[in-house]
Design brief:
The complex is a heterodimer of chains A (160) and B (152). Chain A is an alpha+beta fold and 160 residues long. Chain A has one domain: Thiol Ester Dehydrase, Chain A, CATH 3.10.129. In chain A, 27% of the residues lie in helices and 32% in strands. Chain A is built from three helices and five strands; from the N terminus they run E-H-H-H-E-E-E-E. Chain A has helices at 22-32, 41-46, 56-81, and strands at 12-19, 93-99, 108-120, 127-137, 143-154. The longest helix of chain A is centred in the middle third of the chain and has 26 residues, at 56-81. Chain A is elongated, with a radius of gyration of 18 Å. By secondary structure, chain B is of the alpha+beta class. Chain B has a single domain (6-21, 57-147), classed as Thiol Ester Dehydrase, Chain A, CATH 3.10.129.10. Chain B has helices at 24-34, 38-41, 43-48, 58-72; strands spanning 12-22, 79-81, 84-90, 98-111, 118-128, 134-145. The radius of gyration of chain B is 17 Å and the shape is elongated. The chains are: A alpha+beta (160), B alpha+beta (152). The A-B interface holds A 28, 31-35, 37, 47-49, 53, 55-57, 60-62, 64-65, 68, 72, 87, 89-99, 124, 147, 152 and B 30, 33-39, 49-51, 55, 57-60, 62-64, 66-67, 70, 74-75, 79-91, 93, 136, 143. Strand 2 of chain A pairs antiparallel with strand 3 of chain B, so a sheet runs across the interface.
């Protein structure tokens, strides 16, 4: 993971992709969002989504999953180089989350992130605040998901 | 139980839902699958983190809030889905065995221009733990069918 100083506005990073299946869509929905169009193919077809659709919270959680996996790969690479490791802090929230198109069973979504803003935290010495636009694109190149996410990122010389 | 339609959502306080307990096992299971950061999985690493102790993933908290909204009213609402979330703020960490309460207010209810048989209802939802501390606040719209449009 990068330190605050190393992050450049406009920098894009790909997190990889994930295939939503009828099984993983229904499993998430049964636990957290059991609306009929997330649980049943026929109900999904009759809905605005036009097929068995993943819960939007499932899509957001999968984006998080791929982002964390990417961060852990970066930590391993930094350790292999003997570099200092940046451990990112928690997120204070997000804005402008858009479920632009349905994510249907069988869709493969590729997630990436683009850094939009960065500033030094006033309230937490040693930390910066990063805003990045995370997006998901399906196998047809259509954008399905977008969110402006915020995170606390450590400064290099803060002794973290 | 009658189905709630657009007309049932008037601006103002809508309801209070819960309590819903979130166990340590649920926190660890969600984190292992979707957010395996040490602060959500490992007590020792969590103690050293900004959140000072094991905490649930923010996406887990959002997903539990979704479930509380479903159990509270969306499950009996003629909802067609949601276009997104305007704003979400994580204000305090979700801890093992927190008992969550959800306060839901209708911030805005307006007819849809593109789908005249529906309206857009925007909620402001606040999730609190048993001691009344706010864990998250969310402003989020859903699309709801109008009554005369032949809702089931």
């Amino acid at each position: 993971m990068h330190f605050f100083e190393d992050l450049e506005i406009g920098r894009r990073r790909d997190f990889g992709s994930f295939t939503f299946t009828a099984d993983n869509i229904k499993k998430f929905a049964a636990q957290f969002d059991p609306q009929r169009f997330h649980l049943d193919e026929e109900e999904g077809r009759k809905s605005l989504f036009g097929g068995l659709a993943a819960s939007g919270w499932h899509v957001g959680s999968v984006c998080m999953k791929l982002m964390v996996a990417d961060g852990q790969r970066q930590i391993k690479e930094a350790m292999a180089r003997g570099d200092k490791i940046a451990v990112w802090g928690p997120s204070p929230g997000f804005r402008e989350l858009r479920w632009i198109r349905p994510v249907l069973a069988g869709d493969t979504i590729s997630f990436s992130s683009l850094i939009e803003t960065k500033r030094i935290s006033d309230s937490r010495p040693g930390w910066g605040i990063l805003q990045a636009r995370n997006t998901g694109i399906n196998q047809r190149g259509e954008q399905v998901y977008s969110v402006l996410a915020t995170a606390f990122v450590p400064q290099r010389d803060a002794g973290s | 139980m009658t189905t709630l339609t657009f007309e049932d959502f008037k601006p103002g306080h809508f309801g209070t839902f819960g309590p819903r307990r979130v166990t340590r096992e649920e926190i660890l299971a969600f984190a292992a699958e979707f957010d395996p950061q040490p602060m959500h999985l490992d007590e020792e690493a969590a103690k050293r983190s900004m959140l000072k102790g094991l905490s649930g993933s923010g996406w887990h908290l959002c997903s539990v809030v979704m479930r509380m909204m479903f159990d509270g009213f969306i499950g009996r609402t003629a909802s067609l889905g949601s276009p997104g979330v305007n704003e979400l703020r994580w204000l305090a960490p979700l801890r093992s065995d927190d008992e969550l309460t959800l306060d839901v207010e209708v911030a805005e209810a307006r007819l849809s221009k593109s789908r005249p048989e529906t309206g857009i209802v925007t909620f402001k939802s606040v999730a609190r733990n048993a001691s009344g501390q706010t864990l998250c606040e969310m402003v989020s719209p859903i699309i709801v069918r109008r009554r005369h449009a032949g809702a089931a």
